[in-house]
Amino acid sequence: MTRSIRDRATGDTLASGSEPEVFDFEGNVYFAPSTVNTEALVVSDATYTCPYKGTCNWVDIKGGASKVAWVYPDPKPGHEKIRGAYGFYRGQRPATEEVSE
Q: Buried b vs exposed e over 2-33: b needs ≥16 C-beta within 10 Å?
């Protein structure tokens, strides 16, 4: 099964793949960098610090919505699985939607 995240405004695919490159973690879906459309996304300088995972950078849609995904470049011990993966909220969001094919 292929799982994808699409930009709801344009229909563009932002990330698409299947296990093991795509996985669920803490209620969100994570995509390995090789499955992400980096032409459509930009990693921003804006950050968020989670007390147990560490600091992530927010990811924006180029020319579109902001904070649609996040990347932990150096997560805290115990969370190495998400290092470098792009995390997206599951389901339908204002700017994105998850689809399975």
A: ebbbbbbeeebebbbbeeebbbeeeeebbbee
Q: Which residues pair with 98 in a beta bridge?
A: 5
Which pTM does this prediction carry?
Answer: 0.95
What is the C-alpha to C-alpha distance for residues 17 and 21, in angstroms, rounded to an integer? 6
pLDDT, tens digit only, all 101 positions of the chain:
999 999 999 999 999 999 999 999 999 999 999 999 999 999 999 999 999 999 999 999 999 999 999 999 999 999 999 999 999 999 999 999 999 98
28 Cα distance to chain centroid: 9
DSSP 34: G
For residue 100, how far is the Cα from the chain centroid?
15
H-type helices in the chain, by residue range? none
C-alpha span between 11 and 73 (Å, rounded)? 28
